[in-house]
Amino acid sequence: MEQVKNETKRPPYGIISILMIGAFIAFLNNTLLNIALPSIMADLEVDASTVQWLTTGFMLVNGVLIPTTAFLIQKYSVRRLFIVAMGLFTAGTILAGFAHVFPILLAGRMTQASGSAILMPLLMNVMLVSFPIEKRGAAMGIFGLILMGAPAIGPTLSGWLIEHYDWRMLFHFVTPIAVVILLIGFFLLKDKKEKVDIRIDMISVLLSSVGFGGLLYGFSSAGKQGWDSPQVYLTIAIGAISLLVFILRQLKQERPMLNFKIFKYPMFALSSAISMVVTMAMFSGMLLLPIYVQTLRGISPMDAGLMMLPGAICMAVMSPVTGKLFDKFGGRLLAVIGLTITVITSYLLSQLTFETTYFHLILLYTVRMLGMSMVMMPVSTNGLNQLPVRFYPHGTAMNNTLQQVSGAIGTALLVTIMSNRAESKGKELGEAAMAKLTEQPTQEALAQMKQQIMMQATLDGINFAFFISVFIAAVALVLAFFMKRAKQAEDTVEENPVGKKVVNNKLAEN
């Protein structure tokens, strides 16, 4: 799609609608799969560390492909990218739906990821170039409403399907919808794009793939393998070195694959830092609460999904509201209030007991999601608003990549903290229990005591991980006080010494 030069031009609502429906289905598929993992483990006879590759593999593909989307958006039309992305997602969904062994399921899942990785940056770029800054908050709010609808219905729908059908129905359910969306896009998307003479640097692609892929794989493996495993620290080291070389190479290139110079815009750099920290904190609720309610409290997957439903609905409903508030008041006020709520609710979640009521969990999680809804989209939009139009593809690609990386780091960090705390607490409780024994217990009594100690240690680990997330969210809260309402930087064209036109960007902010 051609970049919109005249922002007063009527936005292409047809294109945006088709892209949003495609992105919604991709998001829905992701949330459907989480609750199905235990069923997949039992059916395909794989352990937890193996089945986790359905999530890790998805993140790896995203980490490798998302940095290339800045190039793809500049090179190809929206129609072409959407058809390729939706085609890959549909093919992966069909393959996964008929998988009878785990490698085929994983291949289908990673094929899905290759399409999903293109859809989100593409939609974000179209939204940015279609709406002027003063209307962008409301537009992004509607965008958030639609995409947050997927997490709202995903867990509950997944729980119902798993209880009544085979786990493959999750993919069979999505397949016909994906096919219809692909056909609609094929026949209705008509945007044209002038031929752009740019070529991708394959060395940059390789460095990016090894860099982001290595970091994602290393941090994702840390929760299971431990930080002292060579598989973890070697892949992280290789990823970090490759990423450093990749960044240095991009800074020297005339047309970089991913332009790191966008970080010289202060509000974009600040919004990226806040978004990464908030994503890490958000994973504590998404990861730790299901472990608590299903493992320690014995709540069914269906009820676990229903527990998270009000929070997801709240986040979806609040999205257009926060969008309008963002246009009126800016992002700082919303971010400060939202992060204050997040810090408080994270602390309250660190006080869980075996007697914590179901209603109390619903209330805490819902209020926490309310806080999150006031942070994510306003902070991200405020940062992107400062970039010149030509940097939008790089800004959206960078944001999506950093979210994948911070998500992996947050998951690994919290799982490791929870596991280490539970292990040390278990030893402490075990020694205390043995010291109190006056006679040799029976095998049955010993097994019961071990079970109680394990549950108490796991609860302590979950509470401690939530407590750490309080400090993570507090970092984002401090950063939020430095936010200012961003004004789009201007593009000025001048001649360079060899006679080529180059664009200089004037930083602007008030």
From TrEMBL:
Source organism superkingdom: Bacteria
The keyword Membrane is annotated on this UniProt entry: yes
Chain ranges passing through the membrane: 12-33, 53-74, 81-107, 113-131, 138-157, 169-188, 200-219, 231-248, 268-292, 304-321, 333-352, 358-380, 464-482
Keywords: Cell membrane, Membrane, Transmembrane, Transmembrane helix, Transport
Cited InterPro entries: EmrB-like (IPR004638), MFS (IPR011701), MFS_dom (IPR020846), MFS_trans_sf (IPR036259)
Compartments in which it is found: Cell membrane
Major place of residence: membrane
Domain Major facilitator superfamily (MFS) profile: 15-488
Membrane topology, as annotated: Multi-pass membrane protein
Entry similarity comment: Belongs to the major facilitator superfamily. EmrB family.
Identification of the protein by name: DHA2 family efflux MFS transporter permease subunit
